[in-house]
Structures are given as C-alpha cells and as structure tokens.
Write a structure and sequence with these properties.
Oligomer: single chain
Strand order of the largest sheet: 2-1-7-5-6
CATH topology: Ubiquitin-like (UB roll)
Structural class: mainly beta
Number of domains: 1
Number of helices: 1
CATH superfamily: Beta-grasp domain
Number of strands: 7
Distance between the termini: 33 Å
Radius of gyration: 12 Å
CATH architecture: Roll
Largest sheet: 5 strands, mixed
Length: 80
C-alpha cells in the first residue's frame, strides 16, 4: 500500500500518495491551480512545465509549476 503524506491546500489538510505531484493534490482537493485575470479557472494543460497554466504558490514561493513538483510532507500549497 502506498505511503500517504499530509499537505495543506489553501490551509486545508489532506492526504496524498507519496510521489504525487502538486497538480494531483490540487485536483484531488477540487480546486483550480489559479484563476486567470479574466476570472477563468486554470489547471495543468501540458503536464510538462511548458504552458505555465498550473502555477500556484508552494511554501511561500509564487508561480511554481505544480505539474513538475512532487508533494512533500507538510507542504503549504496556495491557489488564492
């Protein structure tokens, strides 16, 4: 059975499988990675870190590409 780790998504604790990307954690939480300037929800499009649609704030660092970063225990992920 895969190990689960705890992360915070917009201050809400949740468990994800070890090795999951931050984009997966956000999808499981049911929240978009970000909201565009026109108000549209955005999420992973390419899954390769090229399109920058999946950006979020991770551990206080803005504009991180969530499709390229693996979750770590107690990671703080913010989309707002």
């Amino acid at each position: 059975m895969p190990e689960k780790i705890r992360v915070l998504v917009n201050s809400k604790p949740m468990l994800v499988e070890h090795g999951s990307t931050v984009a997966v954690a956000l999808a499981l939480a049911g929240v978009p990675c970000r909201i565009s300037v026109t108000g549209q929800p955005r999420g992973p499009l390419c899954g390769m870190g090229i399109c920058y649609e999946c950006r979020a704030t991770i551990n206080g660092v803005e504009h991180r590409r969530t499709c390229q970063i693996a979750c770590c225990a107690d990671m703080d992920i913010r989309t707002q």
